[in-house]
Amino acid sequence: MKNHKILTVLGARPQFIKAAAVSRALLRTDLEEIIVHTGQHFDEKMSEVFFREMDIPMPAHRLEIHSLTHGAMTGRMIEGIENILFSEKPSAVMVFGDTNSTLAGALAAVKQHVPVIHVEAGLRSFNMRMPEEVNRVLTDRVSSLLFCPTDAAVQNLKNEGFEHFPIKIVRTGDVMYDAALYYFQKAKHHSTILQKLRLEPGKFALATLHRQENTDNPERLKGIVEGLNQLHKQKPVVVPLHPRTRKTLENQNLTVDFHIIEPVGYFDMLMLLHNCSIVLTDSGGLQKEAFFFKKPCITLREETEWVELVEGGYNTLAGWQPQHILHAFEKSMSNQPDFSKNLYGQGDASEKIASAIQEFLLKD
Ligand code: UD1
Ligand code: UDP
């Protein structure tokens, strides 16, 4: 008989990857995990593929809420999660990262006086126009147990006065590192993406693009597309494209010369990361994964939450202008930073999280 029930709320692609690592660790504890999928991401290649490949326990509840404005999406999720809280009566609710599903889970729980556990707490871009920054700041503030991946994240919470709140902050390392280490061993045997796309190891650039600030601003989107088009003349650029960006590119009739493919599963993504020569992205997760696979990264934004990557010379913030992207590319290809540093832990963040949750719940 498991002695405490944790309700995990997830809904977007990066959360499946983070949850996969933590769920594996929770299986080795006395905690029962019940998963709620909000439905925020719903295409097979944005959702189910991760459950299948990564053996994530199937969601017990599916809310099927997606493709709405921020308020409508978050509001409906809160209502749906609240109903599940009434029936499941968990000891705690666990949320990951910074999406609308994260905030909805945290708000539904705290209003029912259910403790909130936030995995990937303390990250900040200091740009409150980003929906993710709003989600992170608010989620952290209502959480009781905050798991920080980096020293910078712990410091951000201290700067905001969290030390004076009745909460617990634990520096664990990054669960995405745990996931990359574990699943790469499987990916090597299962992925055929390089052969399928006829890609030569070390001879292509991997790019992703989906951030609202880029897709919803025509000038920025055009600049990034132009930058990638020009880069593609020097080195093939492969882009597994988020459905949001695909829709916008179609609407804006932009000429694309680089190689767009459907979003890929995690195994294929790990093989692309392992074999590319450089990563260009506005994704949060991919910036770290570039580092895990010892690849330089160009970030298509003006700021990042993963400041240690920029400070260490692994990541260049290039923004959206083609000449800045090309300049960053030249610089990154000639730069050889020391990738042996251990910025994101030892691959045991999920174990640390599982133990800390047990300790937290057993003392109540
Ligand atoms: C969300 C997160 C973002 C995260 C990203 C990961 C918020 C505010 N944003 O952004 O932080 O980096 O997920 O990928 O929570 N769509 C599909 N099929 C899908 C999923 C989405 O067509 O499977 C379409 C939706 O219909 C919608 C658009 O993409 O029109 C945007 O989806 P949404 O979940 O609102 O935001 P993301 O850009 O995916
Ligand atoms: N990812 C994937 N397939 C793709 C694109 C991304 O498996 O086609 C993985 C990627 O390797 C990382 C996670 O999804 O683990 C990042 O998610 P995303 O970029 O959507 O969100 P963010 O990290 O920006 O919130």
- Amount of beta strand: 5-15%
Radius of gyration: 20 Å
Instruction: Trace the largest sheet across and list its strands.
Output: 3-2-1-4-5-6-7
Name the helix and strand elements from N-terminus to C-terminus, one letter apiece: EHEHEHEHEHEHEHHEHHEHEHEHEHEHH
Q: Which properties best describe this structure?
A:
alpha/beta, Rossmann fold, 16 helices, 48% helix, binds uridine-diphosphate-N-acetylglucosamine, UDP-2,3-diacetamido-2,3-dideoxy-D-glucuronate 2-epimerase, UDP_GlcNAc_Epimerase_2_dom, WecB-like, isomerase activity
How would you describe this structure to a colleague?
The chain is an alpha/beta fold and 364 residues long. It has two domains: 4-174 and 345-362, Rossmann fold, CATH 3.40.50; 182-334, Rossmann fold (3-Layer(aba) Sandwich), CATH 3.40.50.2000. The strands form two sheets. A seven-stranded parallel β-sheet has the order 3-2-1-4-5-6-7, with helices on both faces. Strands 10-9-8-11-12-13 form a six-stranded parallel β-sheet, with helices on both faces. It is built from 16 helices and 13 strands. Helix 10 (218-234) packs across helix 15. 48% of the residues lie in helices and 15% in strands. The chain has helices spanning 13-26, 48-54, 70-88, 100-111, 131-142, 151-159, 175-190, 193-197, 212-215, 218-234, 243-252, 266-275, 284-292, 307-311, 322-334, 349-362; strands at residues 4-10, 31-37, 61-62, 92-96, 116-119, 145-148, 168-171, 205-208, 237-240, 259-261, 278-281, 297-299, 315-317. The two termini are 18 Å apart. Uridine-5'-diphosphate binds at residues 13-14, 17, 208, 210, 240, 263-264, 266, 269, 283-286, 289.
